[in-house]
Structures are given as C-alpha cells and as structure tokens.
TrEMBL record:
Keywords: Cell membrane, Membrane, Transmembrane, Transmembrane helix. It comes from Postechiella marina. PANTHER family: L-FUCOSE-PROTON SYMPORTER (PTHR43702:SF11). Its main location: membrane. This is L-fucose permease.
C-alpha cells in the first residue's frame, strides 16, 4: 500500500491529455441528464403521443450505446484512441445540430434519429475514453485514475439537469395550460405553441453541439501519448482471451446489473415520492430529492477515489455494494422520509461502481482491452431492461397507486426496490470474488 501512495495517479507529462480526455466524461453526463426529462417534455408539447411513444426517447438513447459500442471498438483497434474520440465527437455534434431541422419539421421521429446519432457518438467516446484513461499512467493506479476521471461525469449530469429544468421545462408554453385549456386552443394557437416549444427544446442541444466542436478542436491539436495497447493482435485472439477471462465476463454482467440499479433508483424515485405524498398527505418535490441523490453520487465518488489510495478497489467495490444493499433494504422496509432518505443514500454507494467494475474487468489486458471495452459499454443496455421489470411490479395493483401490500405491510412501490437491491448484491459479490482471487 505504501508503494501505491508513492505512485502518482497522473504524471505531470500526461496531465494535459488526462484533463482534456476527462472533459469528455462531463460531456456525456450533460447529454444523459439533459435528455432524461425530454420524455415528459415531448409528451407536453406533442399531446398526441402516448406514454409508450414518448418513452422511445430513452429507447433511442440506450439503443445507440448497444448498437455502436462494438463498431467503435473495432474502429479504434484499427486506427487509434484519438481517431475514435474525434469520430465520436463528430457524431455527437452532428446529432445535436440535427435538432434544428427536427424542430423546423416538427417531426418526433426526426428528434429520435437525432438522439440516436448523439448516442452513437457517446458510445464511441465511452468505448474509447475509459480504456485510454486506464492506460495514461501506471497500471497500479489505473482504477483510481478512472474513478477520478469519472468523478466529472456527475458534474456534467447536474449541469444537464439544471439546463433541462431552467431552459427547457420551465420555459415550455404548453406547460402553462391545463389539459382541458390546451385542447381548447385553436389550431393556429396550438401550432404557435408547438413551434415555440420545439424550438426551446432544440436550443440547448445546438449550444451543446458548439461546445463539442470546441473541445474536438482542442483534442485534434493535442498530442496523445502512445500506449501499450497500440500493439495489435488478431481479432479472433482478442475474443478468445476475453471469453477465457472470468473476471471480464463477470464484469460485463456486474456492469449490466449496476447500470440497471442506477437507472431504477433515479427513475422511480419520483413514484416513491408521489406515493409518500399521497399516503401521508405530504407535498414533497421529487426533483429536489433526485438532485440530492446526484450530489450524493458526486460526493461519494470523490471520497471513494481518495480512499482507493489505501484500499484495494475490489474490496472497495464489495463494501460499497453491501452499503447499497443495506440502503435499498431501507427503501423497501421503511416508510415515509426514512425510506426516502435511504433511497437517496443508495447513490453514495453506487458512485464508484461503474469505473471500478470497468477497471477491474479490463485490468492487465493488452490490445483486447479495446474490444473488451465494447462489452462493458454494451452492458449499459441493462439500464433499459431492468426498469421495465420494476415498472411491472408497480403495475401489480393497476395504474396509479393502490392499497396492495406485499407480505401484508410493504407498499408495492417500496417493494419494487427489491430489484435494485438484488442488482447491487450481484455487484458486491463481483467485488468479493475478485478481491478473493487477488488475496489468494
């Protein structure tokens, strides 16, 4: 451990490349949490959309990750990390700028295509940036280095949340009308409101596209150091090594369960708060608790990154996984504010999971890390699949909230968080199994 303390997380000669690559982690955080509220925004602006149709916003987003991760890995394997980053930023900017013609045409499908293109770019960035950060320094501090870079992701997420709330949600004219009043507007008035609101939705994306181009220009003129992964091996050999690596295979599974847990906790906190308001007669605002969860996530990641100077990453993952399980149990078993506080606290323990699983799964890999990175990015699709299962539990008693009590005393909303509990238990076991291998 003393030796680990003496090794710098980032050496001075690699500091600038590290900083500029780390800025990309904030960029995809902005995109993720700017897009999350767009489901409700499109539903308000285009009331003809069903809830299922509006939810295609998230489907388009996650499908882009799943679709493009492996092609991105193959691209950077043939060319370089820097080429992959530049192409990813090009796709990101293109998708953002496509919001302008989408708004002009007032076509929902056009918006979905724009989001899909953005996420194809994000898949390139995540598939490239994570293993590159691992390679920018001593292997002994690789996981800590990735946690440090990933700590800037929630900063981007908070920025995206604020932009969405201040510049989009609160500015929509369609939100100023009740459902009945909105339907009573003349066709000309409806057209004016629709044109205005779709323009509002497109503005932050266009601004984001400009920011992406600026960062891309900086990266183009930044000299990236050569890494050990530049040595090529055959594609079949890469797949053979990956499938023979139990740490990697279990890591992909753990990553899918982690992302599923994260999206469930951050999505269904709104239903959790609404149930408290309805059953206890309170007037809590779910958005505030969602922001509190994100701030907790950010604080947890900074603390976790510091602790990794003295604690083995696998052991840390195990301990944080156990902490997340305990907090989920609190969200299930406790009612009112104690349960809600437990749910917010889950984010503290989820904070280090994505980069730590990533670092453990890819540790010691050579060229196969480029292909391996794709599997870990494709695992993000867990965030699209797991929430559907939790929604099924919420619908046990029919739409809305019901008096259904699981085991006679647990509201179905509370009980639904048994799923993130199971997911985090899988993550904790992955930490335990890899730590056990390292100490044996």
């Amino acid at each position: 451990m003393n030796k680990l303390k003496k090794i710098p997380v980032v050496s001075k000669e690699l500091l600038f490349p590290f900083i500029i690559i780390t800025s990309l982690f904030a960029l995809w955080g902005i995109a993720n949490d700017l897009t999350n509220p767009m489901v409700s925004a499109f539903k308000k602006v285009m009331p003809e959309l069903s809830n299922m149709q509006a939810s295609l916003v998230q489907f388009a987003f996650y499908f882009g990750y799943f679709f493009m991760a492996l092609p991105a890995a193959l691209f950077i394997r043939k060319y370089s990390y820097k080429s992959g980053i530049i192409l990813g930023l090009c796709l990101y900017a293109l998708g953002a700028f496509l919001f302008y013609p989408a708004a002009a045409n007032e076509t929902f499908t056009f918006f979905l295509i724009s989001l899909w293109v953005i996420t194809c770019g994000l898949a390139f960035l995540e598939t490239t940036s994570n293993p590159l950060i691992l390679a920018l320094g001593d292997p002994a501090t690789s996981t800590q280095r990735l946690n440090l870079a990933q700590a800037f992701n929630p900063i981007g997420s908070l920025t995206g949340m604020i932009i969405a709330q201040v510049f989009v949600i609160s500015a929509l004219r369609s939100d100023d009308y009740t459902e009945e009043a909105y339907k009573a507007l003349t066709s000309e008035e409806l057209a004016a409101v629709r044109e205005n609101d779709l323009g509002i939705i497109s503005v932050p994306y266009i601004g984001l596209g400009i920011l992406v181009l600026i960062i891309m220009a900086i990266i183009i003129f930044t000299k990236m150091p050569k890494t050990a992964e530049e040595d090529k091996m055959s594609l079949s050999e890469s797949f053979k090594r990956l499938f023979a690596n139990s740490n990697y295979k279990f890591g992909v599974v753990a990553q899918a369960f982690y992302v599923g847990a994260q999206i469930m906790c951050w999505t269904y906190i709104f239903q959790y708060v609404d149930n408290i308001n309805e059953t206890l007669g309170m007037e809590l605002t779910a958005t505030y608790f969602n922001v509190a969860a994100m701030i907790s996530f950010l604080v947890g990641r900074w603390i976790g990154t510091a602790l990794m100077r003295t604690i083995n990453p696998s052991k840390m993952l195990m301990l944080f996984g156990i902490g997340g399980v305990v907090c989920c149990a609190g969200a299930v078993l406790l009612s009112g504010m104690p349960g809600l506080i437990s749910l917010v606290a889950v984010s503290v323990f989820m904070s280090i999971m994505f980069p730590t699983i990533y670092g453990i799964a890819l540790k010691g890999m050579g060229d196969e890390a480029k292909i391996g990175s794709a599997g870990l990015v494709m695992a993000i699709v867990g965030g699209a699949l797991m929430p559907v299962l939790q929604g099924g539990i919420l619908d046990w008693g029919g739409p809305g909230f019901s008096d259904v009590k699981v085991l006679g005393f647990i509201p179905e909303v509370n009980f639904s968080f048994i799923l993130p509990l199971i997911c985090l238990a899988v993550v904790a076991f992955y930490g335990y199994s890899t730590y056990k291998k390292q100490t044996n």
